[in-house]
Amino acid sequence: MGKLTVAHDSPTGKGWTPVALTTDSSSAAASRRPEDAGTVTLTGSYALTLAPGENRPQLRVAPAFRTSPDTRELHLELDLLDPRGHLLDRTTNDLGLNLLKFTTVSAPTTLSRDGKWRTVEFSVTNTATTGFAAITTRASAVCHDVNGGFCKQTRTGPGRVAVEGIHVQWSAPDGWRDLPTTTPTSDASGAVGERDPDVARFSLPVGGSRHVRLRVAASPQVRQGAELELGLGASIPEQDGKPTPGPGAVAKMTVH
């Protein structure tokens, strides 16, 4: 278990200054939102000089603690007070908490158009307080052409197209399997696996990590200078059976 830290931007715009936090379990703090009754509230304050015109004060929030699967958000409330303590304005924001941490373990930064495989490896770590019996990972790849659009596509069937010259596979227990590279023409954005096909499925204990391996190959059909983004995301089951998306990781490669 860690702690929550908050920092504000410096007046010069360089660096961050910690905000001292204290535990506030008063009824006034808990009564702001009925759903927060019985929870721990941390409060802190800092002086802020606002010049005439547009001002954008920034906060950096780092929740260094594990959370249960049914706690997915951190409620942040920011009050603006005058020198005498009178409330001028208030804003609130619910920050999503990551139950899964994704890391790009290894990936090339360039991709030759020689048809040879290049391996990309991601890790998935359980940062919650509860183990997950079933996690589904999903892979995706997007190819951006040198002109700022998407890489060339070809029709592969009724209502479907595929990006030309990109081949993606994922490592299954019984060997490498092709990742679908088609997307409906009604949503033809040039994305390989636009709907993020399912790949590896596994359980993940508290603090546990698993690696997912993909590999990609490019042919001369892809124009030199194109940018390929190969990513991995995941979902975990909720109590009502609906998936909860986890944050993902993306490896970017330049085709040459």
Summarize the structure.
The chain is mainly beta.
Question: Could you please describe the fold and organization of this structure?
Answer:
This protein is mainly beta. It is about 0% helix and about 55% strand. It is built from one helix and 21 strands. The protein has one helix spanning about 25-30; strands spanning about 5-10, 15-20, 20-25, 40-45, 60-65, 75-80, 85-95, 100-105, 110, 120-125, 130-145, 155, 160-165, 165-170, 175-180, 180-185, 190, 200-205, 210-220, 225-235, 245-255. The strands form six sheets. Strands 9, 11, 17, 18, 20 and 21 form a six-stranded mixed beta sheet that branches. It has a five-stranded antiparallel beta sheet with strand order 8-10-19-14-15, with no helix packed on it. The chain starts with a strand and ends with a strand.
Number of strands: 21
Secondary-structure content class: mainly beta
- β content, as a range? over 45%
Percent helix range:
under 10%
Low-confidence stretches: 27-31, 183-194
Q: So how many helices?
A: 1
Taken in chain order, the helices and strands follow as: EEEHEEEEEEEEEEEEEEEEEE
